[in-house]
Amino acid sequence: MDVTEPVTLKTLAGELGLNVSTVSRVINAEPGTEAKWASPATIRRIQELAHERGYARNPHAASLRTSRSDLVGVIVPRLQDYVLATIYEGIDAAAEASGRVTVVANSLDDPARQRLRTESLLARRVDGLIFGDAHQDSPYLDELAARGVPLTLVSRRRAGHVSVTCDDIAGGRLAATHLVSTGRRRFAVIAGARYASTTLDRVGGFLAVLAEHGIGESEVDLHYTGFDAPAGQRAIADILGTDTRPEAVFAVNDFAAIGAIGALQKRGISVPDDIAVVGYNDTPIAQAVNLTTVRSPMIEMGRLGFDKLLALIDKEAVDSERLTPEFVVRSTA
């Protein structure tokens, strides 16, 4: 055989003395399912010759046969966000293990951009979508589901859609329980954005514990400034502008908490002696600055979000899942 000629299923079948259909089914079978089409000895012969001849499976041709592209689209607010980048690592690892490829796009947490980037991915024939930027007040996810698009959510949840999140209500409760146990009674919360379930659930769990200890929501200083370090700095400027200084600050994101700590220290306020600070997620930078925080299982969130999407693509029944958080005590509270 002229080695310069392209290696095809037909040429492999000719050398092996087998039907092209048999060779095709073995090579294009999902891993572990090859035995449906041939004996172990025949499968080994096919695979060894394909490897020896440098045969490469044509994913485009395979997608035409199966109506699947083996591509999964992932929409995140920003890949520079460590939390979503870590969740994406879990998604991508699960995709690689299943022989799929992920394509990621940034929405910048803007619903119009989310729609634009999603439609672009759908035009490229992705088999399904994973969203890390779900908004509570946006109908677009409902529209996609009505169109029959398989999708799952990670990090944030939304009613009516399969999601994998941290149990953020439980996480908020852990933060409040710890702070109350240290004797603190005056609180401020850097709450993130109102459209995100992470805000609603973490703040809701936090306030529920305070209420159980006789501290009403009207007595808590809530600031919806965002999830990053500048948001934490802005919140501290607002908090210290009031007549009553809190004894503790709970931020629903580590980066907002770190921004808050920097702003407090700049004003000569000691953490935790004057004001304690608790964050959320337990990112590496939280460990570096000894931030007391709530740990969320980010990698596992991504893996499970991908696995549930595959189940939906295969028309299986799937339930949402909330993963257990863990409270990590360090030096800031």
Automatic annotation (TrEMBL):
The family database entries (CDD domains) matched by this protein are listed as:
HTH_LacI
Q: Which UniProt keywords apply?
A: DNA-binding, Transcription, Transcription regulation
Q: Name one GO molecular function term.
A: transcription cis-regulatory region binding
Specify the HTH lacI-type domain's residue ranges.
7-66
Q: This protein's superkingdom?
A: Bacteria
Concerning SUPFAM superfamilies, the annotation shows: lambda repressor-like DNA-binding domains, Periplasmic binding protein-like I
Check the record and name the Pfam families matching this protein. Peripla_BP_3 (PF13377)
Q: Which PROSITE patterns is this protein grouped with?
A: HTH_LACI_2
Q: Please tell me whether the keyword Cell membrane is annotated for this protein.
A: no
Q: What is this protein called?
A: LacI family transcriptional regulator
